[in-house]
What does this fold into?
Amino acid sequence: MFERIKEDINCVFERDPSARNTFEIITSYPGVFAVVAHRFNHMLWSMGLKWVARWLSTIVRWISGVEIHPGARIGHRFFVDHGMGVVIGETTEIGDDCTLYHGVTLGGTSWDKGKRHPTLKNNVVVGAGAKVLGPIVLGDGVRVGSNSVVVRDTPSGASVVGIPGRIIQRKKPINPQVKEFAEKIGFDAYGTASEMPDPVANAINCILDHVHAMDSQMEQMCDAIKQIGGEVEGVDLPELNVSCAIRKQSCDADCDSDTCSVQVDGAEKPQQVVILK
It folds into this structure.
C-alpha cells in the first residue's frame, strides 16, 4: 500500500507541470489526498470493516470533494487532477497510469447488485465533466474528451467525444515530439488534442461531398438526354460550392473566401480558412 502511495505522489510531477515538490503535492492536491486515503479505506473494506471505511470515505469527500467508494479497485499511479466533483462507484476497476479530471463520474446504471460500474484499463485519460456509465470496459490508452457521456465498450487506443460518446480518429498525424512525450507518460491533457476532428462536422461534410457528386452526375445525365433529342425541364437550384463545407470556429460565418481577417493586438491580419474534410 505504501509503495503505491509513493507512486501516486511521484506520478504528479509527470502529469502536472505546476507541481514543484513533494511537500506541496501532499498538502495542497485534493486529488492526491483522496487517492491516498482510498488506499487505506480499501484496505479496511477488504478486512471487513465496511462501515468504518464508508465513514472515512465520507470525511474524505467533505475535505477533498472527491468521492471514491472504498470498494473500488484502483491500480498503480492513479492521478485525479483538481478533483472536485469526481465520483467513483463501488464496483469500478481502474488500471495503471490512469488520469481523471474534475467532474468525472464513473457511475452505475442499475440498482442490481454485482458489477454495475465501469472498468478502465491501463493509460486511460478521462476529461473534465465526462461521464462513464454502466459495466462497460474502456480499453488500454482510451481518451475520453471533456463532457462526453460514454455508455458502450471502447476499444484500446480509441478517442471518444460527444453525447452519447462517439469513437473518432485523428485526421492527421500528431507532431512527433508531442507523440513521443505523450507515449512516455501515457497522457493527453483533458483527454483531448487539437488534432481531434468534430465527428458531427465530418459526417455533414461527407454528406455534402455526396451531394456534390450526385449533382455532377445529374448534370451529365441531363446533357446526354438533350443530345438524343429529349427535353429536360430546367429548374433553378441553389449553387453548391466548396464554401458550403463547415469551417473552423475561427472563421467568420459570412466568410466566402479562402482567407478572412481577424483582430490581433488591435490590428487586422489575414487568416487562412481551413475547410474541415
The first helix runs from residue 2 to 10. The CA atoms of residues 87 and 97 lie 18 Å apart. Helices lie at 2-10, 12-15, 22-28, 30-46, 50-64, 176-185, 199-227. The chain is about 35% helix and 15% strand.
